[in-house]
Amino acid sequence: MANFHGAAGRDRLKNGRLAGIPAGLAAAVWLLRVASGPVMAVTAVGHPDWNQLEKQFKEAAAASGIPRLAQLVDAVAPHDDPRAAKLLIQYALSGVDYGLELKAGEILFTMTSAEAKKAIYEQANKNFNYKTRLILLGVVYALYQKSDPDALVVLQKALWDPRNEVKFAALRLLKLAKDVNAVDSLIALLEKVEKAPKGRLHYDIHAALKEITLGHDFELAADWKIFWDTRRGQKLEPPSRTEGKTGVLHKFFDIALDSDRIAFVIDVSGSMSRRDPPPAVGKKQGEHKTEPIKKGKQEKDKEQKKDEFPIERERLYRVKQELIRTIRSLPEHVHFTVQSFASEIKYLNDNPALIAATPANKEKAVEWVNKLESLGETWTDTACERLFADVKGFDTAILLSDGQPYRGKALDEKEVLDGIKAANRFARCRIHTIGFKQAGENLKRFLFALAGQNDGKATMLE
Question: Is 48 exposed, middle or buried (0-12, 13-18, 19+ CB in 10 A)?
Answer without folding.
Answer: buried
